[in-house]
């Protein structure tokens, strides 16, 4: 009771009357009761009967209806939320969200709620009162933000609506169901097909000798057990982890060692590789092997997909079915920024920052994937990433986010898991390593912040991965908010996008 006493004592004298510092009422208030319905606002007795109150309310509602009809607006309606504890509140949160997405919350005249439904209704109405009015913002986007704040407030304060409160709002990824319509999704796909798709991982980057030579530097990089022999299992593990190629198999490793090891066998000697001239030969032959692999089995590398850039002006041209897409994405970023206390720049300049880079429409066919990676190359670059599912595969294609700073979990999955297992059970394996995985659903959007620490390391998320598509195709649209890539000042880590 101590904290309650302090809060009560700090209040004004009107509310403090009747409190004597103990857990009991003082003599002045003991035994007295106050009927709040006995007097109206001016202190006089209320003579209205129940029937008169109902009639007055009906007349008020009918007057509002007639006003809406004269203005040409949608027919107003009321919403009733039933009880049922947290399960009811969770379901009704979804109802509010869908009404907000449909732009119909502004047409709601009355909310009626009991028990579990009142958890959500009271929280929602409190957010409405606190926010005041849209103040120039479009009403649907304003209501969407109000509902998001309501849900996040309940998550943070009481753990409602989520099983793990550590994954409540403010953490990545932000999930916006049905952000785009089916027509908008298909229009983006057709626009990309008309412009032409190119490999997401250009040949010159896939065969760049710098990471290859770095990964193969010294015999110890491949000879993991130190027995002096580099076998196919060690070579495959090195390729999966050091070259970020989770689908690199034992068979691929045997071909690699046989062609690049000088002796034609599946194993090579670590002492042989330690000689500089042999190391140079091995690196050169490795590039030749990988070039053939890229031509015939491109999914063996860190990324296998094709994509097309879509200029923002093309999306908003007259008559385009995609005209509303930029504003929908910008509203999503704005709502996320408000709820995560992001910088004012991100909150108020999301339109300009969003269009710093073209949108990319990306196609993943069978085996298509993207190994664990981050989108941001330096602080300020791609502060927010956006991903929208345009077409979904029948099996596979999940997007998985790794926990912050858990490099060991990522390396462990890439090193120790056979390529065939990663292909079939990617999401299951990554979840076991602590990742959060989202299954593709057409029109759904994901958003996450690429936040940097003062020491120059990414804060959240550390990395994410696109699991291999097993059956069907996956199409996504990617966009970013923040400083665009500038090769004159920074190394552009994702220049192909």
Automatic annotation (TrEMBL):
Provenance organism: Polarella glacialis (Dinoflagellate)
Alphabetized GO MF terms: iron ion binding; L-ascorbic acid binding; procollagen-proline 4-dioxygenase activity
Chain segments carrying region Disordered: 1-45
Cited SMART domains: P4Hc (SM00702)
Pfam families, alphabetized: 2OG-FeII_Oxy_3 (PF13640)
Cofactor(s) the protein requires to work: L-ascorbate
Cellular component terms per the entry's GO annotation: endoplasmic reticulum
InterPro entries: Acyl_Trfase/lysoPLipase, Oxoglu/Fe-dep_dioxygenase_dom, P4HA-like, Pro_4_hyd_alph, Pro_4_hyd_alph_FE2OG_OXY
Full protein name: Fe2OG dioxygenase domain-containing protein
């Amino acid at each position: 009771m101590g904290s309650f006493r302090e809060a009560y004592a700090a209040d004004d004298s009107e509310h403090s009357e009747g409190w004597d510092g103990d857990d009991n009422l003082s003599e002045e208030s003991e035994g007295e009761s106050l009927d709040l319905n006995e007097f109206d606002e001016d202190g006089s007795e209320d003579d209205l009967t129940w029937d008169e109150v109902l009639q007055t309310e009906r007349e008020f509602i009918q007057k509002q209806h007639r006003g809406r009809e004269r203005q040409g607006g949608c027919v107003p309606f009321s919403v009733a939320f039933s009880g049922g504890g947290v399960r009811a509140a969770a379901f009704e949160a979804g109802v509010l969200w869908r009404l907000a997405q449909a732009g119909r919350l502004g047409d709601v005249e009355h909310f009626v709620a009991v028990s579990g439904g009142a958890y959500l209704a009271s929280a929602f109405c409190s957010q409405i009162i606190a926010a005041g009015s849209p103040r120039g913002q479009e009403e649907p986007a304003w209501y969407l933000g109000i509902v998001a704040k309501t849900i996040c407030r309940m998550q943070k304060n009481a753990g409602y609506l989520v099983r793990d409160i550590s994954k409540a709002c403010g953490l990545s990824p932000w999930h916006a169901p049905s952000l785009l319509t089916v027509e908008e999704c298909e229009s983006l796909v057709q626009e990309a097909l008309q412009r032409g798709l190119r490999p997401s991982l250009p040949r010159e980057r896939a065969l760049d000798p710098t990471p290859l030579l770095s990964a193969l530097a010294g015999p110890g990089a491949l000879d993991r057990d130190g027995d002096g022999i580099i076998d196919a299992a060690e070579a495959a593990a090195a390729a999966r982890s050091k070259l970020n190629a989770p689908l690199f198999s034992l068979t691929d490793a045997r071909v690699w060692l046989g062609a690049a090891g000088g002796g034609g066998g599946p194993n090579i000697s670590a002492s042989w590789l330690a000689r500089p001239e042999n190391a140079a030969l091995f690196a050169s032959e490795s590039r030749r092997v990988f070039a053939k692999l890229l031509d015939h089995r491109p999914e063996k590398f860190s990324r296998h997909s094709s994509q097309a850039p879509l200029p923002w002006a093309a999306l908003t041209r007259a008559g385009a079915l995609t005209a509303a897409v930029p504003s929908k994405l910008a509203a999503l970023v704005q709502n996320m920024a408000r709820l995560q206390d992001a910088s004012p720049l991100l909150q108020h300049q999301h339109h300009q920052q969003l269009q710093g880079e073209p949108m990319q429409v990306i196609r993943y066919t069978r085996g298509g994937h993207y190994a664990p990676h981050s989108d941001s190359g330096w602080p300020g670059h791609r502060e927010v990433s956006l991903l929208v599912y345009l077409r979904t595969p029948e099996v596979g294609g999940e997007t998985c986010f790794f926990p912050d700073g858990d490099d060991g979990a990522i390396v462990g999955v890439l090193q120790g898991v056979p390529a065939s297992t990663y292909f079939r059970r990617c999401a299951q394996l990554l979840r076991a390593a602590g990742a959060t995985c989202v299954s593709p659903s057409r029109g759904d959007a994901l958003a996450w912040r690429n936040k940097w620490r003062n020491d120059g390391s990414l804060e959240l998320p550390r990395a994410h991965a696109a699991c291999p598509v097993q059956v069907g195709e996956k199409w996504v649209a990617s966009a970013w908010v923040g400083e665009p890539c500038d090769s004159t000042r920074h190394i552009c880590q994702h220049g192909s996008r």
